[in-house]
Amino acid sequence: GAVVSQHPSWVICKSGTSVKIECRSLDFQATTMFWYRQFPKQSLMLMATSNEGSKATYEQGVEKDKFLINHASLTLSTLTVTSAHPEDSSFYICSARDRDRYEQYFGPGTRLTVT
Amino acid sequence: AQSVAQPEDQVNVAEGNPLTVKCTYSVSGNPYLFWYVQYPNRGLQFLLKYITGDNLVKGSYGFEAEFNKSQTSFHLKKPSALVSDSALYFCAVRVATLNAGKSTFGDGTTLTVKP
Question: Cβ–Cβ of A49/B103 closer than 8 Å?
Answer without folding.
Answer: no
